Amino acid sequence: MSTLAPVSHAATLARIGHALSDATRVGILLALREKPAFPSDLADELNVSRQVMSNQLACLRGCGLVEAEPEGRRSRYRIGNEHLAAALDELAKVALHPSKDCCEGPACTC
Question: Does residue 70 sit in helix, strand or coil?
């Protein structure tokens, strides 16, 4: 468990929003929601390079959303807070029904 002071509710939600704004980070969080994993396994599962995985895990770790547990020469990652795992479970249940004229893709500003 981290010894750093907790951030405000608004800062916590902003960090979670930032994490969820990237498909790779979402994939990492969903995978770690199921069980801890090594970066190489996550990279293979999400079909991204090890460098991309390293960068995304650093982002999530910096935001306080995941934690690394050293295991020998490697580190296994896990969700950093049990409430985050429960929140992801709940968010995964949300079904959106966007209007047919809502934009899609990277240019979407919705």
Answer: strand
